[in-house]
Amino acid sequence: MRLGSRAHHWLMTALVVLDPITLVLSVGYAAAAAATGASVRWDPGRAFVVCTGASARLHGGGGTTVGCVYVTSATDVSEPVRWHESRHRDQWAIAGPLFAALYAEEVLRTRKDFTRNVWERWAGLVDGGYVPAPTTEPA
């Protein structure tokens, strides 16, 4: 199975929802976003839920993924950000609810320098908007 393939995305989401604690966290997070007026949509290409237009109080930075649910106050989510957030879903699939503690520890270790955060680096700093995409200088 190729990383990033449709099968990969569905397998990772299946692993998230098979863990009862992570499933409850995911559903609760989507419900909280919906309660703030967010639009809640299923992204079949990435096999996760994207909640746009949520209250900024529900997430850090540009958005937050809990389990297989991405919540943002933005009204549109770019393809690179969807890719980045689907990698966070993969991290939840691998670590389960322990991922929340692992991520929090990394935030403390790096003093909120997300460019040094191992989880953000694995998810792709450029895709997540943490560093500008490299540009090529004209010759």
Task: Record the SSE blueprint.
Blueprint lengths: L5 H13 L1 H16 L3 E5 L4 E5 L11 E3 L2 E3 L7 H17 L2 H12 L8 H6 L16
Parallel strand pairs: 2-4
Antiparallel strand pairs: 1-2, 3-4
Helix pairs in contact: 1-3
What would a concise description of this structure say?
The chain is α+β, with helices and mostly antiparallel strands and 139 residues long.
Describe this structure in words.
This protein has about 140 residues and is of the alpha+beta class. The chain has one domain (about 5-125). It has helices spanning about 5-20, 20-35, 80-95, 100-110, 120-125; strands at about 40-45, 50, 65, 70. The chain has a four-stranded mixed beta sheet, sandwiched between helices.
Task: Name its key features.
about 140 residues; alpha+beta; four-stranded mixed sheet; 5 helices; 4 strands; about 45% helix
